[in-house]
Amino acid sequence: EVARFMTIGISAMNQRNLEVAYNAFDHVVGMAPDFAEGWNKRATVLYLMGDYDGSVHDIQKTLALEPRHFGADVEVLALHPDHVAPPPPRPPVIGGNRATSSPGATG
User: Fold this and answer.
1) Which of 15, 62, 19 is nearest to 41 (CA)?
2) pLDDT 10s digit of each residue in the chain, 107 long?
3) C-alpha 45: how far from its chain's center?
4) Which terminus, N or C, of the chain has the lesser number of Cβ atoms within 10 Å?
5) Residues 72/84, Cβ–Cβ less than 8 Å
6) What does the radius of gyration of the chain's CA atoms come to, in whole angstroms?
């Protein structure tokens, strides 16, 4: 069922039928709230509809479920950098190398 709604949503999005796409992806996140790509697709549709706050919310949900979701990470920074928590601090530099560098590596 989730796959069917994903297919409907993607097809509708490609045809710029944003209302149908939104409804399809809304069904996906309702049926499978732990499926990050459903949230990401709905975020894209919300962005195309001009609902930037809604889009950011869904992108943040995508990243909470899949922190390495590249597309969502890039989208949220492009949309509203002020809505995003700052990145974690980088490891300190020790002797020209990052503290997490492997022995003998140069930084």
Assistant:
1) 62
2) 999 999 999 999 999 999 999 999 999 999 999 999 999 999 999 989 999 899 989 988 998 898 876 565 445 545 544 544 444 555 666 665 554 444 454 54
3) 12
4) N
5) no
6) 18
